[in-house]
Design a protein that fits this description.
The complex is a heterodimer of chains A (115) and B (111). Chain A has no helices and 11 strands. Chain A has 115 residues and is mainly β. Helices cover 0% and strands 59% of the residues of chain B. In chain B, the strands form 2 sheets. In chain B, strands 2, 4, 5, 9, 10 and 11 form a 6-stranded mixed sheet that branches. In chain B, strands 1-3-8-7-6 form a 5-stranded antiparallel sheet, with no helix packed on it. Chain B is globular. Classes of the chains: A mainly beta (115), B mainly beta (111). At the A-B interface, strand 4, strand 5 and strand 10 of A face strand 4, strand 5, strand 9 and strand 10 of B.
């Protein structure tokens, strides 16, 4: 009964490079959410996706950040031309999409370090 | 905009010393309130969902309660393995599943 899977667990990038973070939801879950957690800060919502659709991206920075959840394969959070301020833990959560509200189950996170 | 404030920021307890964590919220129509536990270097682990004022839920040494303005997480006779950061989050009655988290209470239980 695998939970939410994220990879890589740790990612190091130099300024200006691209970062790709992957998330596979729990079996039976069709909704995916991405959050960012800075040291000593709370989890901040970034984007909410269903298969092939972005439902709410109100928490995503307007530039350099994008997310997708294709019909096949994991959800991807992509950060182009990374800067030091992008260093954070990025968490993915998934839900069944049947409840109101829908309980979100989190993955272990990807820790991004920008040098 | 929805807001969640948790207090205290940090709490240190002796093993067996019961206490409560507070979560105050401002939300435009509460659809649900969640409690999560987060261990260092790990993702949040779901504990409870509360839907309406007066509701209570229990799991082992933890009990969550909800009023119209706040929620409490009561910890009875804690053990060192209860040490973690406890996160509170709310979801409003808007159209989507957008969750707003508090910054958490870091609990340390000393043997």
């Amino acid at each position: 009964n695998a939970g939410v899977m994220q990879n890589p667990r740790h990612l190091v990038r130099r300024r200006g490079q691209e970062a790709r973070l992957r998330c596979s939801p729990m079996k039976g879950h069709s909704h995916v959410y991405w959050y960012r957690q800075l040291p000593e800060e709370g989890l901040k919502f970034m984007v909410y996706l269903q298969k092939e659709n972005i439902i709410d991206e109100s928490g995503m920075p307007k530039e350099r950040f994008s997310a997708e959840f294709p019909k096949e394969g994991p959800s991807i959070l992509r950060i182009q031309q990374v800067v030091r301020g992008d260093s954070a833990a990025y968490f993915c959560a998934s839900s069944q999409g049947t409840g109101i509200p829908d309980t979100q189950y989190f993955g272990p996170g990807t820790r991004l370090t920008v040098l | 905009e929805d807001q969640v404030t948790q207090s205290p920021e940090a709490l240190r307890l002796q093993e067996g010393e019961s206490s409560s964590l507070n979560c105050s919220y401002t939300v435009s129509g509460l659809r649900g309130l969640f409690w999560y536990r987060q261990d260092p270097g790990k993702g949040p682990e779901f504990l409870f969902t509360l839907y309406s004022a007066g509701e209570e839920k229990e799991k082992e040494r933890l009990k969550a309660t909800l009023t119209k303005k706040e929620s409490f997480l009561h910890i009875t006779a804690p053990k060192p393995e209860d040490s973690a950061t406890y996160l509170c989050a709310v979801i409003n009655s808007g159209g989507y599943q957008k969750v707003t988290f508090g910054t958490g209470t870091k609990l340390q239980v000393i043997p």
